[in-house]
Write a structure and sequence with these properties.
23% of the residues lie in helices and 21% in strands. It contains 17 helices and 28 strands. The strands form seven sheets. Strands 7-8-6-9-11-12-13 form a seven-stranded parallel sheet, with helices on both faces. Strands 18, 19, 21, 24, 26, 27 and 28 form a seven-stranded mixed sheet that branches. Strands 2-3-1-4 form a four-stranded antiparallel sheet, covered by helices on one side. β7, α7 and β8 (257-262) form a beta-alpha-beta unit. The chain is globular and about 75 Å long.
Length: 754
């Protein structure tokens, strides 16, 4: 009996993932459903649909994965999901699935056509001349003293310039001071989502955390790489948690635990990605992600709906409600004129976007710029050279090291290490507190460049550097006494129709929306600003977008891209900016869409929506947690101009009642008697219509196939996001109830009102 118990305990990590069935995409279609548990169950759904229930999708409550055979008589998942959508939208349609009212949302789960791209250093651009580099004697002696004091005997420590730079003193992460204070990452858990983690490495084995690790490519608990090319995740892990143990070098938080999630080494669907982003999110604190859409100067991509919901879920519920911390590298196609605001992982308000500077503090030419960039970290310059500019870290192999790590892939994990050190002394810091701390303590670099602008907080912001390079010592010291911020509030404008041709040249099409004190009453200060827009254009790369705040701060939401020849424009794409952090929201917010490239390609600015996220004025005494609401059925419905507002209906006082009104009031007795008779008939009618009303309600609320949840309303609204883990993607519950009736009133058309 005891032996059996021990065996069960050893197998626990694998038993916990028993619902992650092996992939069978060759013979089966897979799809995801969001279910209302008060109406239906996954077992009932599977039975009615003739499908197999594969399990809940990670930590996404009530989101389930199903499979059906591709040889199914009635067609595969496409036909099935189409039937479900038609049934939810059409009250009079005969539908063989008409008793599945509890299906709120659906999407097919295909294998990713666009692979997630590791953000390693791009091909070298030119030779780096280091012949005139000379070590500073004082810095060399200081480094030796630090190593002796802390007992660091790792042979590559003296080459880890990102930890202590002896050639360009001060151009490093400024971390050794906190080590000397005893802050080394104890009690923190960082997970690398990547191509695996070499658990045999002596540099990582002491800090390896198997309880937070998983292999989504092979559906088991072992993240060990299988090929020599799968070294990226191990290198990133070494930057954070390489032990102080005489092997290679040390990590930023060398006493912090490190887990590995193997995700990028094989075909995956969106449910794998969503599950990975929330994997063991009560144990794992920080998720370091050095990957994203292709770095080619022309792609637009990001998380699908399930992965978006996983990011929201992690921020709202991870780490016992303090929020998972997501770090994403900004991208390596800067030398191709790419812009990191075309990366939906980077421009999520729930992630920290990190760019790269080299060991001299210069902007790395490959590092992408954008208004979503929060900070920069160190990495190699991207040039041919003798390796002095690269990041020295762990490699796959028992005692293997590398001097070739770089790209924004290397910058992101260094910031993850800095955050681990801050959390080791203040574990109660929320995900938003950490973003505040990073921008508050970041150090501007190359302030002579004209991209810097002073923000409302008195901090400088640059689209190339964010708020500057991370100063780990300052971050940790500030974290010690940081007052926790109030919960998050958010405001969403109506959908603002434009429908105007974009002139070529520098003028563009300009539209403004005024945020008044009345509609923004409980948002004390802005943190993130997002703009969702639709723009048609026959060459997307010609477009650029600016956002001007009431305080005069300018966010370059997008820039022209010379390689982007797509003819689709911007289709419901959301841009994000952190440049307006700390600003008051009241006043005119102006968006300008430009086509500055003179050619035969043209476009139309269709519509846009302004979304403000920030801190509440007051912390409520009790936070409510409403269930998530989803609004996605925005396909195939008419978009009409909002009619003039109706006159407010008044309520008469008792003193104002006329004699005729009193007589009418007395008639209620007779009417009540008549009502009894009518009620008998009404019962039968009610039973008939009740089901149709439920169908209409659901069809008004929910859509199918993976489009982002709409954030549309017939009026501006503000609410606190903590009450609903999906508010980032949806409206409030009262608005969901009215959605079907109010949809035709949604769109404000600037041209019609002008």
């Amino acid at each position: 009996m005891a032996a059996l118990l021990i065996l069960l305990l050893l197998c626990k990590p694998f038993l916990c993932t028993a619902n992650q069935h092996p992939r069978r995409h060759e013979t089966h279609d897979f799809f995801a459903l969001h279910l209302d548990p008060s109406i239906t169950s996954p077992e009932k759904v599977a039975q009615v649909l003739g499908a197999q229930h594969e399990g809940q999708i990670g930590e996404l409550s009530n989101h389930h994965k199903f499979s059906i055979s591709k040889s199914r008589a009635n067609g595969g998942a496409d036909a099935l999901l189409s039937d479900l959508k038609i049934g939810r939208r059409c009250d009079s349609c005969l539908n063989r699935y008409d008793d599945l009212d509890g299906i709120l949302w659906s999407t097919k789960l295909d294998l990713r056509e666009q692979p997630l791209n590791k953000r390693t250093t791009p091909p070298p651009i030119e030779h780096l001349d280091t012949s005139d580099w000379v070590e500073d004697p004082t810095a060399v002696q200081t480094q030796k003293h630090i190593a002796m004091t802390l007992g660091i005997t790792d042979p590559l420590f003296h080459l880890q310039w990102h930890l202590f730079n002896t050639y360009q003193p001060g151009q490093d992460m400024n971390v050794t001071g906190v080590w000397q204070e005893g802050v080394t990452g104890n009690g923190t858990f960082t997970v690398i989502i990547d191509d695996g983690l070499d658990i045999r490495s002596r540099d990582l084995e002491d800090n390896y955390f198997p309880g937070g690790s998983y292999n989504f490519n092979e559906k088991n608990g072992n993240p060990q790489p299988r090929r020599a090319s799968e070294s990226h995740g191990t290198k990133c892990a070494g930057e954070i948690s390489a032990s102080k143990n005489s092997v290679c070098g040390v990590g930023m938080a060398y006493d912090g635990k490190i887990a590995g999630i193997r995700l990028l080494s094989g075909p995956i669907d969106e449910s794998d990605e969503a599950a990975a982003l929330n994997y063991q999110y009560q144990k794992n604190h920080i998720y370091s992600c050095s990957w994203g859409p292709p770095d080619d100067g022309k792609a637009i991509g990001g998380p699908g709906m399930l992965a978006q919901r996983a990011l929201v879920n992690g921020a709202q519920n991870g780490r016992q409600g303090k929020g998972s911390v997501f770090i994403f590298s900004a991208g390596n196609a800067g030398f191709l004129d790419d812009d990191c605001n075309f990366d939906g992982y980077v421009n999520s308000i729930y992630t920290i976007a990190v760019g790269a500077i080299d060991r001299e503090g210069n902007h790395a030419e490959y590092s992408e710029s954008c208004s979503a960039l929060l900070v920069v970290g160190y990495s190699r310059a991207g040039y041919l050279g003798d390796g002095l500019d690269a990041i020295y870290t762990t490699d796959i192999g028992v005692e293997s090291c590398t001097s070739e790590h770089g790209g924004t892939s290397a910058a992101g994990p260094l910031i993850a290490g800095s955050i681990a050190l801050a959390l080791s002394i203040r574990p109660e810091l929320t995900w938003r507190d950490l973003q505040y701390l990073l921008l508050d303590t970041a150090v501007p670099v190359h302030e002579e460049e004209d991209d810097w602008q002073m923000t409302a907080t008195g901090k400088k912001f640059s689209h190339r550097y964010g708020y500057g390079k991370v100063d780990t010592y300052a971050l940790v010291q500030r974290a010690r006494e940081w007052p926790l911020v109030n919960p998050q509030a958010e405001f969403h404008s109506p959908l603002l129709g434009v429908h105007q041709d974009i002139p070529q040249g520098t003028q563009g099409v300009e539209r403004s929306f005024e945020v008044t004190r009345e509609v923004i009453s409980n948002l004390a200060r802005v943190e993130h600003v997002t703009v969702t827009m639709n723009v048609n254009h026959t060459r997307r790369g010609d477009l650029s977008v600016e956002l001007h705040s009431p305080s005069g701060i300018i966010s370059q939401l997008s820039t022209t891209r010379r390689l982007d020849n797509e003819t689709v424009g911007y289709s419901n794409w959301t841009f994000m900016s952190v440049a307006h952090w700390g600003e008051p929201a009241i006043g005119n917010w102006t968006v300008i869409v430009k086509d500055t490239v003179i050619n035969n390609f043209h476009g139309i600015f269709i519509d846009w929506q302004l979304n403000l996220w920030g801190e509440m004025h007051h912390r409520p005494s009790q936070m409510s947690h409403a269930p998530p609401n989803d609004i996605t059925d925005d396909i195939g419905r008419p978009i009409l101009v909002k009619p003039p507002p109706a006159t407010e209906t008044g309520v008469a006082s008792a003193d104002s009642l006329s004699p005729s009104a009193i007589w009418l009031a007395e008639m209620w007795i007779y009417k009540a008697l008549a009502t009894v008779v009518v009620s008998c008939i009404a019962v039968g009618i009610y039973a008939f219509f009740r089901r149709r009303q439920r169908h209409h309600h659901l069809s008004s609320k929910f859509d199918g196939l993976g489009e982002p949840d709409a954030m549309l309303s017939s009026r501006p609204r503000i609410y606190r996001s903590n009450s609903d883990p999906y508010h980032a993607l949806t409206g409030s519950s009262s608005e969901v109830r009215d959605w079907g009736d109010e949809y035709h009133d949604m769109v404000l058309n600037d041209d019609m009102e002008a």
